[in-house]
Design a protein that fits this description.
By secondary structure, the protein is mainly alpha-helical. The protein has helices at about 10-35, 40-45, 50-60, 65-75, 80-90, 90-100, 110-130, 130-140, 145-170, 180-195, 215-220, 225-240, 245-255, 260-285, 290-300, 315-345, 350-380, 390-400, 405-410, 425-435.
Length: about 425
């Protein structure tokens, strides 16, 4: 089988497809802002514990394993059609979540019902999302991927900057569960809009299968570059899922109201937006190596800030704002570097299988991290302060974030690392330009 398919999209088709995919990505952001960004707060309102939040993190990672089924459907429906039907099918469980919130009940027994609906929504969408990265690859072939993604994400982060302010203002400091019905309903509308916007996106034809399904999966998995990327993605997702879902527990436990916590999403989006153009240019010019080196190591060092978390609400807000701003900048760079590394690791002859395995690796790591993190954080949360006065929960968050240095080490084995510009070389180039 040839390494690359000869069929390609014209420049006009690519431009039209990129514009359509950007609009679809914006609708995804709308749905996320009105549902997933406040899902942990909704569960806490129902009486959830850190264990439940860990299960939520596990669910939103393990559901990506459904993309194996998405490969078979993509062969029948095509990439864009699969993405379309994935959004259409998610409408019903999203409507059920709206009804659950509108009931106004806060019985802890409903936590499991809410988790089931959230898991089902994410599961269905992930089946459809099997077509997303193949469509991105088709519609950016021959163009600068970093520039395309940065333009797309600048629009997404612009919404992330504004919408959490509105949602946070609407929810207030101590929202009832019924308050969540309206934003969930808006998320329902955004999900339907995403499906409508997918019309007319061009795609390259999938190669006709010459072997069985599992043989193609194994063939894609034998690619060394994909295996190295999968290991990195698994570890990075595990560390993230074992720590980030519990920020809300620590911050709200210190007295940060729900409104302010949601607003932190806007702060992170501002940081993310501010760095996207630069990260995109850096990825296009020098590859993923310098971007992942800067962002992963900086994010690891940022973990030390948890040891200085204040107690007073005003100082807590003053602490959280720059932390979320810096985190947003770094997270934008990590995503850009990971996306570049993932696309480089996957052949267009195994699009569905390759991207699915890459996402599968991240899902396994995130699922395991969320589950173990839920148990670990709930246990740590019950421990008394150490002899030196350190709070165990803060030590936990700091240690998990410092472990991101391990993810950076794994990134040094990614495809093209040796050929890409090192941070040291890049720093010398910058110094020469400044002279």
């Amino acid at each position: 089988m040839p390494e690359e398919l000869p069929e390609g999209l014209s420049q006009q088709q690519r431009r039209r497809g990129q514009a359509a995919l950007t609009r679809v990505a914006v609708s995804f952001t709308l749905a996320n802002s009105f549902t997933w960004s406040i899902s942990a707060l909704f569960l806490l309102g129902l009486g959830a514990t850190p264990f439940h939040l860990g299960l939520l993190a596990t669910t939103t990672h393990l559901d990506r394993t459904a993309r194996l089924g998405g490969i078979k459907l993509m062969e029948r429906l095509g990439k864009a059609s699969l993405l379309f039907w994935g959004r259409i099918a998610a409408v019903l469980p999203t409507a059920a979540l709206v009804a659950l919130a509108f009931s106004g009940k806060s019985d802890p027994a409903l936590i499991w019902a809410a988790l089931a609906m959230m898991g089902l929504i994410s599961l269905i969408k992930q089946v459809g999302n099997t077509g997303w990265w193949p469509l991105i690859q088709d519609n950016t072939a021959g163009d600068a991927l970093g520039s395309v993604l940065s333009r797309m994400r600048m629009r997404q982060r612009s919404l992330d900057l504004v919408l959490p302010l509105i949602v946070g203002w609407y929810l207030g400091a101590q929202p009832s569960t019924r308050h969540f019905a309206l934003p969930f309903a808006m998320g329902l509308l955004a999900t339907g809009a995403a499906a409508w916007l997918m019309r007319g996106i061009a795609e390259r034809p999938l190669p006709k299968p010459e072997t069985g399904f599992w043989q193609r999966i194994l063939a894609a998995g034998r690619r060394p570059s994909l295996r190295r990327y999968g290991l990195y993605a698994m570890v990075h997702a595990l560390l993230s899922a074992a720590s980030m879902p519990f920020w809300v527990v620590v911050l709200t436990g210190r007295g940060m109201g729900a409104m302010y916590f949601v607003w932190m999403t806007s702060v992170a989006a501002l940081g993310n937006l501010g760095g996207l153009f630069w990260w995109g240019r850096l990825v296009d010019a020098h590859g993923s190596r310098p971007v992942l080196t800067i962002t992963l190591l900086a994010q690891a060092l940022l973990g030390l800030a948890w040891l200085g978390l204040p107690s007073q609400p005003l100082w807590l807000l003053a602490w959280a704002t720059p932390i979320y701003l810096i985190w947003g900048v770094l997270q934008g760079g990590i995503q850009m570097g990971e996306n570049r590394a993932m696309v480089d690791a996957i052949s267009s002859t195994h699009q569905g299988e390759g991207f699915t395995l890459a996402i599968y690796a991240s899902a396994l790591g995130g699922g395991l991290g969320g589950l173990l993190g839920g148990f670990a954080f709930q246990w740590v949360n019950q421990l008394p302060p150490t002899a030196a006065g350190w709070e165990p929960t803060l030590l936990y968050l700091a240690a998990l974030q410092l472990a991101m240095a391990g993810a950076w080490y794994l990134s040094t084995f990614l495809s093209g690392y040796e050929q890409q510009t090192s941070l040291r070389t890049l720093a010398r180039q910058w110094r020469r330009r400044l002279k």
